[in-house]
C-alpha cells in the first residue's frame, strides 16, 4: 500500500511536469516558427534559403535590404517586447494573486508612457535616456499605487481600483503635456503612444536585450518564491519565503522589463494581461507560469504585428490589434470570475 | 432641530446658487484671450464688432453647455449612487459614458450617421445597453451587485470599450480628427444649435429624476423595506435608471465622455445637505454645473496659449477623490 500511494503521487507529479514541458515546448516551437515566417513573408515572399544567407551575412540581391534592414530588426523587437510584457505581466499577476493586476490595467504602463512623453516633449530627450527616465518613473508609480492601497495589508481588488484611479490621472497628465507640445515633438510622441513597431532600428533592441537579461533573469531566479506567494502571505512565510524581500525584488524586476519595453515600443496594450492569464490556463497550476507567459507574449506580439501589417484592410499599429483582442477577453474574464463566485 | 437643518440647507442652497452665478460670469469673462470688461458687457448685449467681443460671443454657448452638462452629470451620478446603493457609482466608472461613445463612434464609422439628432439617439441607446450589460455582469454570482464587483465590471468594460474605440477610429483618417477631440470630453465646440437639440432630452431626464426622488429615498432603506412601504421596487429602479441614462447619453453625445463629475458631486452634496434625495438631486445638479464650469475655466487658464479639455481637468480633480473612497472601503468588502 505504502509503495503504491507514493507511486500515485509520483505519477501525478510526473504527468503535471509533462504538461508544463509540453506547453513550453510547443510555445517555443511556435515562437521560432513565427519568427522564421515573419522574416520570409511580407509584401514579397523571400525563400528560406535566401533568408538564411542574409542571416549569415551574405549580400543577397533584393533580399539583404528587406530581410536584413526591415524585417529582422522588427521581428527581433517584436520577440523581445513580447517576452518582456509577458514576463512582467505574469509576475504581477502571480504576486498579487489576481489576473486583473496586470501592469497595463493598473497604470504602470501609463506611468512609463507619461514619463516618456514628458521626456520627449518637455525635456527634449531621446534614445536610451528616455528609457531610463521611463523606468524610474514607472517604478515610482508602482510604489505609489502599492503604498496607496496598503491598509492592513494589500487587497488585490483595492490595488486594482486604485491603480485605475492613478491611471486616469496619468492619462490626463499625458493629455496636458501633449496639449502644450510643439508640433515637431508632438508627432514623435503620438507615434510612440500608439504602441508601434514601425521604423524599428537595430540600436533600439540593445537596451531591451540588456533589461531582459538583467531583470528577466532576476525574475526567473525568484520563480519558486513567487509561486509560494500564490498560497497567501502566511503560508509562503511558513514555507520559508522572505515575503517582503520577494515582493520588492519581483516588483522592481517586473517594472524594469515592462518599462524598458514600453519606452522602446510604446504601450502595446493588453499583452501583459493576456499572456499571463492565458498562460495560467494552459499550464493549469503545474509550476511557474513565468516562462510560458513570456513565450506567449512573444507569440502574441508577432501575430498581432503581422496581422496589423498585412492581414487587415488597413495598416494598424500592433497596440491597436492587441487592444481589440484583449478587450473581449477582459470582459469574459470578469464574467467567468463573477459567475464562479470567487473573488478576483 | 428640523428648522435648524432646514436653515442650513437653505443657506447652502443660497451659497451654491451664488457660486454658480459667479462661475457663469467667470466662464464668459475669462479665457485664453484676455478681454476687457467693457467688451464682455458689449458682447453680452449682442455686439461682436471687435475680435475681443467675438471671443466672448463664442464663450456664451460654451458656458451654457458646460453648465447644462455638469448639471446632467452630477444628477446622473446622484441617481446612479442611489439606484445601485453604491458609493463608487458614476457614469464614467460604470462604463456608461464610454458605452455611449462607442455607440457614437460605431455609428459614425460604419453607418455614416452625421446629424446631431442621430448622435443623441445612438448615444442614449449605447448608454442604456451598457448600463444593463454592466449591471448584469456585476450582479452575477454570489452576493449580487456589491459595490466593488459593480465598479470592477464597469471599469473593465470602460477599458475594453476604450480600446475598441481606438481600434475603430485609427485607420479612418477621414473621421479621426473630428472624433479625436470629441473623445476626450470637452465643451469647446459648443453651438446654440447643439444645445437646442439636446435640451429636450435633458429636460426629460431631469423631470424623470425629480419624480423618482421620493422613490430613491425608499430604495435606500433596502428592497424589503421599500416593498413593505408599498413601493414597486422594480418600477422605481427602472424609472430612475432611465433618467440617468437619458442624462448621460445626451451629455456624452454633445460633449464626449466626461468622467468623475458624477462621482465627486453627490458625495460632496451628501456632506452638505444629507441623504434626502428630494434635496440631494437638485443640489447635485447645481453643484455639478459649478464643478464643470470651474473645470472648464481652469482648463482655459492653465494650458495657455492652448486649451485643456474639461474631461482632462475633471479627471485630475476626480481621480484622487476616487482613490480616497476606495481606500475608505473596508477590507472585508474588497
3D architecture notes:
The complex is a heterodimer of chains A (344) and B (334). Chain A has 344 residues and is mostly helical. In chain A, 77% of the residues lie in helices and 0% in strands. Chain A has helices spanning 2-40, 48-55, 63-95, 108-121, 128-148, 156-179, 183-193, 202-221, 223-229, 233-238, 243-265, 271-283, 290-311, 318-340. Chain A is globular, with a radius of gyration of 21 Å. The two termini of chain A are 40 Å apart. In chain B, 77% of the residues lie in helices and 0% in strands. Chain B is an all-alpha fold. In chain B, helix 4 (96-110) crosses helix 11 and helix 5 (116-138) packs across helix 11 (233-255). Chain B contains 14 helices and no strands. Chain B is globular and about 65 Å long. The longest helix of chain B has 34 residues, at 51-84.
The number of E-state strands of chain B comes to 0
Overall mean pLDDT of chain A:
83
DSSP helix fraction of chain A:
over 70%
Report the uncertain regions of chain A.
none
Structural class of chain B: mainly alpha
Proportion of residues in extended strands of chain B:
under 5%
The biggest sheet of chain A amounts to: none
Count of helices of chain B? 14
Shape call of chain A:
globular
First and last CA, distance of chain A: 40 Å
Q: Can you summarize this structure?
A:
Chain A is mostly helical and 344 residues long.
